[in-house]
C-alpha cells in the first residue's frame, strides 16, 4: 500500500510545472495547422483490380487526389501504366491495372492516403515511397561509356614480360 502512495505523488500533473514543457501534448501542432517546411515529395504506385469498371478506377484516383489537395498537398503527375501481367496471382487474378502518382504532401497526409487505400475496394496493392530531392551540388557526373578505353596508367601491357625475355 505504501508503494502505491509513492507513485501517486509523482503524477503527470507535476510535469506541467517544468519550465518550457508543453502541457497540451503537442496537440496544437497537429490540429490542422500547416507547416510549410514539413512537405515531402512522394510517389504512390497503385495496382487496381482489372475486373472493376473503368469508372471505379477514375473514382479511386479522384478521391486520392482530393485527399492530397484538401490537406494542403500538391498533385504533380499521374501516369496510367495500364494493364500488366502479375508475377503471381493475387485473389485469383493474373493481371493488374497500374497507376503512378507523384505529389507533394505532409507525412500525416501520406498516412491518411495509405489508410484510405488499404480499405478501398478495387485497390489490390499500393506502395508509397519518398522521392529523393535533387542534390544541391547539381546533377551527377556522367559515367564514361562502356566502350571507352581506360587511361594509360591502367592499360595492360601489350606483350607479357615473359615473351620479351625470349622464352
Explain how this protein is built.
The protein contains five helices and four strands, in the order H-H-E-H-E-E-H-E-H. The chain is an alpha+beta fold and 167 residues long. It starts with a helix and ends with a helix.
Summary of the model, kept short:
The chain is of the alpha+beta class and 167 residues long. 28% of the residues lie in helices and 28% in strands. The protein is built from five helices and four strands, in the order H-H-E-H-E-E-H-E-H.
Features:
single chain, 167 residues, alpha+beta, 5 helices, 28% helix, 28% strand
Summarize the topology.
Layout lengths: L1 H8 L17 H4 L9 E9 L5 H17 L3 E17 L2 E13 L1 H13 L3 E8 L30 H4 L3
Antiparallel strand pairs: 1-3, 1-4, 2-3
Broad shape: flat
Helix and strand pattern: HHEHEEHEH
Biggest sheet, spatial arrangement of strands: 2-3-1-4
**Biggest sheet descriptor:** 4 strands, antiparallel
Q: Kindly state the percentage of residues in helix.
A: 25-40%
C-alpha termini separation: 97 Å
Structural class: alpha+beta
Measured by DSSP, the beta-strand proportion falls in 25-35%
Radius of gyration: 29 Å
Task: Kindly state the number of beta strands.
Answer: 4
Uncertain segments are 5-11, 26-35
Helical stretch count? 5
Mean pLDDT figure: 77
Amino acid at each position: 500500500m505504501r508503494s502505491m502512495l509513492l507513485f501517486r505523488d509523482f503524477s503527470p500533473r507535476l510535469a506541467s510545472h517544468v519550465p518550457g514543457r508543453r502541457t497540451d501534448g503537442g496537440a496544437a501542432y497537429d490540429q490542422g495547422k500547416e507547416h510549410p517546411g514539413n512537405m515531402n515529395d512522394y510517389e504512390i504506385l497503385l495496382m487496381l483490380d482489372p475486373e472493376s469498371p473503368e469508372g471505379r478506377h477514375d473514382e479511386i484516383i479522384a478521391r486520392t487526389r482530393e485527399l492530397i489537395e484538401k490537406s494542403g498537398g500538391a498533385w504533380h503527375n499521374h501516369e496510367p501504366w495500364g494493364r500488366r501481367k502479375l508475377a503471381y496471382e493475387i485473389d485469383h487474378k493474373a493481371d493488374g491495372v497500374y497507376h503512378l502518382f507523384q505529389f507533394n504532401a505532409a507525412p500525416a497526409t501520406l498516412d491518411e492516403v495509405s489508410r484510405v487505400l488499404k480499405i478501398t475496394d478495387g485497390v489490390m496493392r499500393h506502395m508509397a515511397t519518398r522521392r529523393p530531392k535533387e542534390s544541391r551540388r547539381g546533377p551527377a557526373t556522367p559515367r564514361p561509356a562502356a566502350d571507352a578505353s581506360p587511361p594509360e596508367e591502367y592499360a595492360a601491357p601489350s606483350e607479357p614480360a615473359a615473351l620479351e625475355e625470349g622464352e
